[in-house]
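Hi D.,

Good news: the full-assembly prediction came through. Inputs first.
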Amino acid sequence: MTTASVIAPAERAALTAGAGRHGKLYWALADAWVLCWRNIVQLPRMPELLVFSIIQPVMFVLLFRFVFGNAIQVPGGNYVNFLMAGIFVQTVAFGSVGTGIGLAEDLHKGIIDRFRSLPMARSAVLVGRTMSDIIRNGISVAAMLIVGLLVGFRPDNTWWAYLAAAGLLMLFSFAFSWISAVIGLSVKTVEAAQSGGFIWLFPLTFCSTAFVPLDQLPSWMQGFAEYQPVSVTVTAVRGLTMDYPVGNSAWLSLAWSIGILAVFVPFAVRRYRRAAAR
Amino acid sequence: MTTKPAVLAEGLHKSYGKTHALRGLDLTVQAGTVLGVLGPNGAGKTTAVRILATLLTPDSGHAEVAGFDVVRQANKVRAAIGLAGQYAAVDEYLTGFENIEMVGRLYHVPRAACRRRADELLERFDLVEAGGRPVKTYSGGMRRRLDLAASLVVSPPVLFLDEPTTGLDPRSRLSMWEIISELVREGTTLLLTTQYLEEADQLADRIAVIDEGLVIAEGTADELKSKVGGDHLEIVVRKGGDLAAAARALRPHLCAEPDIVPELRRVGGPVPGGAALLPEVVRALDAAGVPLEDLSVRRPSLDDVFLALTGKKTSTDDVEKEAA
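Then the structure:
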């Protein structure tokens, strides 16, 4: 039998020599990237997860396009062109629940103990997870775009505007993932991370301008619906993909996402320390 | 020569609310040796390992691993240790190869070197064929082997194994023992926790028996065994009705009152003289007219030690059942 498990000190030194060659920030990013890679590699190996997270918004597209849409009057008259921005934002908002579920699973399976016993950056578990969830959400949005195009969605703007819309969506997705991370790290079971992660998203996505124009919502709801993060992001994405007014919604969306990150990143880090040190 | 111990814990305290997991635990492991930390469930073994592996901070006390303080120099400790546990901490959806590669990269080993090490370790741990499959298809024993392999990527000088064979079937347990013994022969310093006395006896140079968060005895297996005194005599009579007569015949030869187990038709107790005493015992029983089914003198097992030290049975009975 070969004795590969224990190696000479000189060889050991060569293996770990790289560690001192770079600064803290380099390793924080490198470690986050390793964990991001791990989460991405997993995706095609649990296809049911990706498929279900795509089927649900596809149902919304079809239901609103062919059932409810006929009853909703929108400016411009073409409901599917109005709808898709709402679908994109809803998709990434619901998709962010996966962040909390993934973290809760890691916590309960003990692999977090492995990570915490390694000389890696403490931040990597959270950053790697939220990074990979941007990518996962990106895949879902791409799928929605294809479905949208199939049922008549015809975006009409410049490539720069599309790029800005994609950027806002990514940032929004990243921000909501951190909220979801706090939930996933606060609950005791994976199931709770799942249901707790969804509940608050329903009022937020439906009491918004995602599916219905603002003036058709009850007047008492309009004040909330106009300025909440889902609505401003929907309005911005809608304006940047179609001929709808953007106004200051893009800036408001940017401000919401940055504000959410400023609050929930440190919150999640604290929760992670507490949850992992049990 | 006075070298610093590879693992040193002094007066570790840790409480969870009102539960005191550790109440002033002291441990020392000299470099290149194996310390078996032996105790029942809830004795504080896992808490001790989690503190030494920097996963938990002690409420008070002090601990050093590989010369570094586990609280103030946690990252230096992490670079010098490997940890494998009772809940195999491997990723279900990654392959065996990918798991080892990932752990290597998180130790900050260059990618190419990680892959080379992954190949070597898979070969060594008999996982070459399974190396390309996701871990969720692995058996319990394979997961433990992979978990151990992953903790050896940088060949850490100090290794912590928290109940490495708990829940494994007897064959997997034996193969883990073989691997662990080999590591030890190659010079790794090892701290191993276990509830199985047999395991500590097999693998450890020194044994620390802990109960309710404190070390209650420490020494080599032989030292601990001699603490409970001399050898143990046991006879099994052919007919249950002879038990009383057998006990009467044995009493003068034992150092304590005979211990009678009617269900097993067994009488036994500690004897001062060891095997030299056997002819006398046989003659006494013969004179009493008690036909024997079995007769034995054995050195005390670690079970006896544990029972004597704590007044509690260990979980070895379960092991024997599993092994049978």
